What does this fold into?
Amino acid sequence: MLQLSLSWLGLGPVSASPWLLLQLVGATWLLSRILSWIYDFYDNCCRLRCFPQPPKRNWFWGHWDLAKSNEEGLQLIEDMGRLFCDVYLWWLGPFYPILRLVHPNFVAPLLQAPATIIPKDMLFYMTEVGDNLGGVGLLLSAGEKWSHQRRLLTPAFHFDILKSYVKIFNRSADIMHAKWQRLASEGHTRLDMFEHISLMTLDSLQKCVFSFDSNCQEKPSEYITAILALSALVIKRCEQIFLHKDFLYYLTPEGRRFRKACRLVHDFTDAVIQERRCTLISQGSQDFLRAKAKAKTLDFIDVLLLAKDEDGKGLSDEDIRAEADTFMFAGHDTTASGLSWVLYNLAKHPEYQERCRKEVQELLRDREPKEIEWDELAQLPFLTMCIKESLRLHPPVPGISRCCAQDVVLPDGRVIPKGNICVISIFGIHHNPSVWPDPEVYNPFRFDPESPQKRSPLAFIPFSAGPRNCIGQTFAMTEMKVVLALTLLRFRVLPDEEEPRRKPEIVLRAEGGLWLRVEPLRGGQQ
Ligand code: HEM
It folds into this structure.
């Protein structure tokens, strides 16, 4: 038997079995890990002391009670912006610090750094959920995989490709408006903008991504219902921290619904890809794609099938599915939120609404059918100003999150220690009174190109900024301009009696929907 001298502990020699030794080594390792964690935690706390924080409820809950996804939560962010102006610290429980940044100069080192140095914080994005939703598409991927994907996908959003989608946007808006006309003639003028516009954005995305017309605005579509169900289930799951782990979630009825809807969405995308590959083989890929490019009917799937990297390597079917599903998820709610809130803001400001309408009427005078074309988008300057001001006041994505893979030096010399999580509060920046005077006032002239304001380029970041900015930005702006122009041409929008209560989830919504009244206008025929 092995003799172990523990005289340094004041003990005599003891007989130690290998098992005892193993236990001792294990315990020492565990103790050293705990001590090292305590030291790191203490050190981090000391380094974070330079950041101010609002009063805590108590040491255990920290600022949990401030993190509310409702109107009060947003008002609190506005108050904090007034109080702290640049960056402040929140504790979610006793051990989880989060830095919230609300000033453009302070987000610059995070947004402009290479994506590998300041990656996304994966807890915030619930990567495990995202994996199941769409595979690791561009939105959730990281490191070398992300930069490879971004290079391959950038051509899909080139102007030449986007131009051909303008017809689709016009057509999808026409369908929505025909429905509104019908509802109004039946006496239903009070409509939930989110419901109607989300269906419209999904309709146009399905046509742009897959060249598939499910007629979802007119009759229920299984695929679209599944996408809407998944979006709602993800929000619910975000709020239930214990259900973040797949194995627990799938034991619940909601988890099973989630899995079923995922399967349906994946099967749809797989079927389109398979069918397209078969056509490519039977017609010859180059001829097929050349003909489509000439007829300007290339959809995202075609562009993804065409994509090749420097070594001539293309995307696998699984990659294509992940990207296509990501576009559907990242593109529909966000654009619907942007459009719904700009209609709300114009309903509240009839003078701006009328000015936009005049601009559109002028542009489409003597034109039948009423259709906006790509080259004409620049001729709607006031309408564009109104959209931008709405994206400022009601940013569709209220915040994004990053994890510092190394120390980050802020402009005033303070340092965010490596390993900390930062929330870049797009809402907070857009409502910061030191950046935007009277931030709560809807004033489109802030974006008047004739009198440019001296502002940081990061003062207005609805689509984020830097290497990981929104790849669909021009797509979304184009769709919003077309749909808003046609809507104002055909309808007057009026506020509902009840003020909406804002609801910041992954996108900015309104509790119970965003209700407005729509009045058909004479002379705004489709
Ligand atoms: C008004 C509409 C939209 C807004 C406000 C918006 C906003 C954003 C924001 C803030 C990000 C950065 C997310 C982050 O850093 O975590 C982002 C990323 C992204 N968006 Fe959008 N988006 C919109 C529309 C779209 C559309 C229409 C598409 C696709 C068709 C799209 C696809 C994406 C993708 C793929 C990314 C990830 C880019 C990357 O990480 O490289 N978005 N978007």
